[in-house]
């Protein structure tokens, strides 16, 4: 076994990592994932740790050979780096300025994934709304979404993350008018206080954020909106925090990732005086309680709706794991990306991971929905997909990576049975 440590913090700490952990074989940065196999070889050959950091990106990570955990879903980078300078964030100093891939290259990669059985693609960038600025086309992201709508066989398109400062209405129009772009939006708020947003160097204000949500809901009334929020940024007063609660209440987020601020060495905010831990904890708990209440109400409002679910592999943690094994329910994601556990009626067709199932929601909980309509004789319909066929082929061994053929280039990995994740790419070795 060899151990490699990579990414933003590895890039920052470099040699310190092998000093503190001499058992680490390789340390690499955010720009040189492509040379990892060579670094591992060199570490083995020379019997010493290899530390190599590139200051600028040579190869887009998602163009590297990869093995996807989920057959139905794939992730495609559209840009790397970020031109913003949020004071809590290490990305700008380590990943550098934003670099955008050309649309043709992105679409070719999406088409290649679809040809392998992928039905859902997530477009990835630190700030997808500024995509295209590098090559002088401010409308490029909206156009990219519309172009994804033309790809036959691609059922679902998602993206992450948008930035409220750069969010423009042409993107809302493209979302609303492109049937395979899903009605879900994960847009980081970080704070509801304008003073704190200024201190974070985030160049939008709460009114602008709420205005975007209004326009998204006007065009897509069923859109689910989720967010990230930091509690206890240095200097945050009780009044500032109450502003966050106000904006959260008004935003009606389906869910939120909430974090207690923690200083990151190398960021502009690192030297600021931290708030007392007890204050941050107490605010965090109040925010958490509010969001739980909002999430529950939003999910209960889904009861009675028909939803088409992309079926997950129920062995996976993402799908609910043991809970599903105990109840015999399967799990899927709705178009708005909610997690839904659903019952399969006795004698009915059992969907495969990657198939689509239509059911009615029968109960809402803060973090998931239940859709047991099928067992009461209500809505239950399975739509078989190419992703389900690909899953079948892998399970039955018809699609065998071990005897040449695809040489695993299909990215569907070996027969599964273990957990299925989010479809994030992981590096695999290619011998020349
Ligand atoms: S926009 Fe996101 S990636 Fe860019 S600096 Fe801010 S938090 Fe970091």
From TrEMBL:
InterPro entries assigned: Elp3/MiaA/NifB-like_rSAM, Methylthiotransferase, Methylthiotransferase_CS, Methylthiotransferase_N, Methylthiotransferase_N_sf, rSAM, rSAM_horseshoe, rSAM_sf
Biased composition annotated in UniProt, kind: Gly residues: 404-421
Coiled-coil ranges (or none): none
Top-level taxon of the source organism: Bacteria
EC annotation from Swiss-Prot or TrEMBL: 2.8.4.3
Keyword tags: 4Fe-4S, Iron, Iron-sulfur, Metal-binding, S-adenosyl-L-methionine, Transferase
Region annotation (Disordered) ranges: 395-432
Limits of the TRAM domain: 300-375
MTTase N-terminal domain ranges (all copies): 1-45
Cofactor: [4Fe-4S] cluster
Alphabetized Pfam families for the sequence: Radical_SAM
Domain Radical SAM core intervals: 68-297
Membrane spanning residue stretches: none
Leading EC class: transferase
PANTHER family: CDK5 REGULATORY SUBUNIT-ASSOCIATED PROTEIN 1, MITOCHONDRIAL TRNA METHYLTHIOTRANSFERASE CDK5RAP1
Function: Catalyzes the methylthiolation of N6-(dimethylallyl)adenosine (i(6)A), leading to the formation of 2-methylthio-N6-(dimethylallyl)adenosine (ms(2)i(6)A) at position 37 in tRNAs that read codons beginning with uridine.
Protein name: tRNA-2-methylthio-N(6)-dimethylallyladenosine synthase
Organism: Demequina litorisediminis
Gene: miaB
